Amino acid sequence: MDFSTLLANNRIWREYVATVQIYTTTYCPYCVRAKALLARKGVHFEEIDVTDDPALREKMVRLAGGRRTVPEIFINGKIIGGFEELRALDDSGELDAMLSS
Ligand SMILES: N[C@@H](CCC(=O)N[C@@H](CS)C(=O)NCC(=O)O)C(=O)O
């Protein structure tokens, strides 16, 4: 395996270029787990705290196609779901591809 392939396959060196937004509340264990997963991968993300902002939460629900729970996670503006969907995408390897585009 050549050096560039080695680097590309190594998560430590991988550069994620996607825009990631995560809607959260302060009292949400799933939000903590989702943020920890992203942070562990070195993903930069924008956190949008809807705790005390019902209008912002309604905007989240609308953007998320009716999903009402937090977190709701968007990659390049596309809803991917909550923590469990994020973890499933990570486990399957699809998340890395989504984050790299
Ligand atoms: N399957 C969802 C579960 C998310 C969930 O249950 N979130 C809780 C907070 S941790 C929630 O939104 N509860 C309703 C509420 O806070 O209004 C996921 O993986 O993200």
How would you portray this structure in words?
This protein has helices at 3-9, 29-40, 54-63, 83-92, 94-99; strands at residues 20-24, 46-49, 72-75, 78-81. Strand 3 (72-75) and strand 4 (78-81) form a beta hairpin. Helix content is 45%, strand content 17%. It has a domain at 51-74 and 81-93. It is an alpha+beta fold and 101 residues long. Glutathione binds at residues 25, 28-30, 69-71, 82-84.
Low-confidence stretches: none
Q: How much helix is in the residues?
A: 40-55%
Structural class by helix and strand composition: alpha+beta
Largest sheet: 4 strands, mixed
Question: What's the end-to-end separation, in Å?
Answer: 24 Å
Mean of pLDDT: 92
Rg: 15 Å
The ordered H/E elements are HEHEHEEHH
Question: Total helix count?
Answer: 5
Q: What small-molecule ligands were found? A: glutathione
Strand order of the largest sheet: 2-1-3-4
Bulk shape: elongated
Give the tally of β-strands: 4
Beta-strand percent range: 15-25%
